[in-house]
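Hi, here's the filled form for the chain we discussed.

Project: internal
Contact: R.S.
Residues: 216
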Amino acid sequence: MGVLEIAVFDVRVYTGTQFRVAGLQPETVDDYVNAMESGAVFPPVDVVYDGEVYWLADGFHRVEAYRRRKVETIQANVIEGTLRDAMLHAMQANLRHGLRPSRADKRKAVEVMLLDAEWSQWSDREIGRRCGVDGKTVKALRDELGLTSSTTKKTMRSGRVVEVDTGNIGTRQKDDDCGIPQMAGADEPTDKDRAAASKIASDYGWSSDDALVYVL
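And the returned structure, exactly as it came back:
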């Protein structure tokens, strides 16, 4: 929808889109208020509009500063979507700019995704990408929370969500030469691993390294 002028009190501030564990920092809001009173112009905040509500996705300190100054309307980059879209957008906004997210902030974002019925089915790598951590960190937290991981993983490909059944990926058959079965998860990938990864990379448009993560 682009940048629009909207009433500041029409912006819905929902705690579910605020992934800063510390929440608003009063000193930052004070700095923004002072800067605004001195004539500083701030960039538009990001909101997600679901047809009824403007959900704030980025710009919590700015909106609070505007409200303190009793500003009636503000510039907002309006994106069509849902509250859940606003939550995902807020996760990414924390990584792009503003106050650097702490480990606690990132952990909170990962926990939100892992405890969500839909997002928990995303691959560890994809959740990590959204939250600014690696896939191993997501897996460790998934295990810590006692959550099981479905063999059907979701990830992004060319801007679309795609599903990958990883249930049999990485399972090696008995080695005909020596008669010793090799288990998935060995440190060094075999030729069979690389062949499987190559096929996955071709089918889903991934890099060979990304595909190999699913094989091992």
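Let me know if anything looks off before we file it.
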